[in-house]
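Annex B. Sample input.
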Amino acid sequence: MGNKILVTGGAGFIGSHLTSSLVKDGHNVVVVDDLSSGSMANLEEVLTDVEFITCDILNKEAIRSVVKDVDVVFHLAAAPEVKESYIIPEKFWKVNVEGTRSLLEAIREGSSSPIFIFFSSSTVYGEALEVPTKETYGPLRPISVYGASKLAAEAMTSAYAYSYGFKAVSVRLGNIVGRRSRHGILFDFVNKLRANPKKLEILGNGRQSKSYLHVSDCVSSVKLIWRSLSEPYDVYNIGSEDRISVDEIAMVVTEEMGLEGVELVHIPSGPDGAGWVGDVKIMQLDITKLKKLGWTPVKNSKESIRLAVRELLSETGWSSK
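Annex B, continued. Sample output.
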């Protein structure tokens, strides 16, 4: 008999992959999603095997009912776009911070004490002076509202876990790519090249260098972390062990689309070469702590990017012929 598991944001990119994996493991999965960025189509393979509830996590009464008697909560529901957080900061406070507090309050007020896994982000580190960056790095100085919202939610997760007696962990994700992703650099590049196969506009100087991890590796690591928790609250980095530059990603995308002679046009947002306000130019997480649990990524950054591009092109019907 498996666990009863709640996945918030379970119809989203990462959430749907996690949900499918948990169902295949034999767990009883409840998915909560308001479908603002997720899609029922993402759960097509397992929809008959899960309980799906269309719900905003800020709906306290509904969330209180959903959390009742669950063994584990995987909390992925969030406003996900770093660039948008500069334009609509209040949205990110409401969804990412208040939404997390709403869920933690439901746990506090409930009769059960589920394990709580909060999906955070590498953006909490800001422009780290140490790369690869360990979980113990500090002080944490996010440079985007998105990163700040994730850090605030981490702090509340820690406080509630210690104060109200349940185990919790924040998993700080690097850049996750793969099937069903509908935002981020790969989605942007493919759409731009479809519109104009001769020229690709790149936000930033193209030398931004970051690590990328395929969603399949992300899911396997998260499940291992869940099974390995021993502290009341803990933090784990999840990422790959190398980096790839934006220009190198552009080359992979053009190769997979069968395009030649594409002009790369760089559009920096400022003198430092960033692509937008809040763009962390160099990012690689130290995953030593995670590897000590017995996990290692199957694919490196470039392999993850190439596979994800192929998956995206297959999903959207692109042919290079």
